[in-house]
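Need the bound structure for xanthosine-5'-monophosphate, inputs here:
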Amino acid sequence: MSFQNLKEKIIIIDFGSQVTKLIARRIRDLGVFSEILTINDLYKIKDYNGIKGIILSGGPSTVTKKRYPSIPKEIFLKKIPILGICYGLQLIAKLFGGSIKSLKKKREFGRAFIFKKNQSLLIKNFFNIKNQSVWMSHQDAVIKLPKGFKTIASTKDSRFTIIENTQSKIYGMQFHPEVTHTVNGKEIFRNFLFSICKIKKKWHVISEKSRLINEIKKNVKNNKVICALSGGVDSSVVALLINKAIRKKLICIMVDTGLMRKNEFKYSYNIFKKKYKLNVRLINASKIYFKKLKNIHDPEKKRKIIGNLFIKIFEKESKRFKGIKYLAQGTLYPDVIESRSATGSQSSKIKSHHNVGGLPKKMNLKLIEPLKEFFKDEVRILGKSLGLIDSIRNKHPFPGPGLAIRIIGQITPQKIKILQEADHIYINELIKHKLYHKIWQAYAALLPMKTVGVMGDSRTYEYTCLLRAVVSEDGMTADYFNFPKDFLDKISNKIVNGVPGINRVVYDITSKPPSTIELE
Ligand code: XMP
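Answer from helper R.:
Posting the output first, comments after.
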């Protein structure tokens, strides 16, 4: 399945920046389809019809070395507008004869103030605030402008912050308009798309729904499809989409590992069975999970055990059904981008255990991944148009290994029970106080230490519960959520009073980086 036959799009050449994905999101948010390509993909394009603009992303490479990632020069002859961002700008400057130098003393990381030098189509409505600031992340800088280019804006430390060559429709900027820290960054994309590339606003995720359903029908025909349903938003949308396309031929398997949130699995099972009338089988595997996880402390070992066991159980269950040809998975676009390197090699692997990598080969199944070109928030929109209930559609992300990586150290059924209760209280209070949807991900964790407390006249010696809540765009970076003190007081009180086994509650006030979202 692919958007290859879409009439008009913007392509983004990925040079390996951590934030390339955000470029695609900003463009899609503006109603234009965009696709991220590696340099190798670019060499394979035969027909440039429909490509209305090209964006060159940032990346860790430097054009000051002898060898550096580049693009075929013929691209510049096609008269397709090009926008270079960070490394993209430096590459353009290099290819057109400018000079780039590593400036250790004038590097810019984080916020920088930018000053307009000349007018340009690219900056309409961008400088409409005082002290316009942008987000920088570079050490190399253009120190001599190539012939034919003009300076549009500068910062104190970098003269050529925005440059353009209007005749060739080539633009470049040293900062990252795609990150939210660049004020008005969206205006840059709006101007590039509609004033420079002259592409039309035509794309919306909902208009893709019927195409996706038709493609599933066409590819799957009369064959059976099996799907691992976790009750998270991705697998739920996949199941509803496939069910719409092929009805009775979809078999969903829910493996209850016992490591999920309180009541959550049964609740989702009932919804899928009764409300959506899916052909779904619930497997209670908690006993075997606890057995295999006994005495295991290392988080990576836990992940491996959980993932491998999942594959085993899923494979065994699927043998009950004859004639299955396809395995459906909720792989998302960021998984696809992350699983290939910027130069096109398939080096890194998708980490989530629900993208059960070994299964299709082992079971001789073909994969269908209808969401592999969508971002999470687009999947949520798709879910809404498929009638997916809000409590599933807007659920916070939940890791495949579940509560096992939120109990530091050894897992026991007793610890799971304690954590489920604390987490249940926390999440319910977030919902009650209308905070849940303001937060990207929130959870309770159980720390591996017991501390002394006093309750009534007796001393207690119980676990510490850690609460985490972060705001984020895609989980790559995150800031801790700033709760009102009253809420923290209330939640600490409720958990300590309501959950035997916990006598202390702490709130994690670190962001990512330097921390991560999960504790293990
Ligand atoms: P970290 O802890 O790396 O988490 O900042 C980023 C996002 O990834 C999720 N996460 C996982 N998801 N299997 C998953 O399916 C895993 O092993 C795993 N580890 C982390 C985490 O919940 C957050 O949304």
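Comments: Residues 208-393 form a domain with the Rossmann fold fold (CATH 3.40.50.620). The two ends are 35 Å apart (CA to CA).
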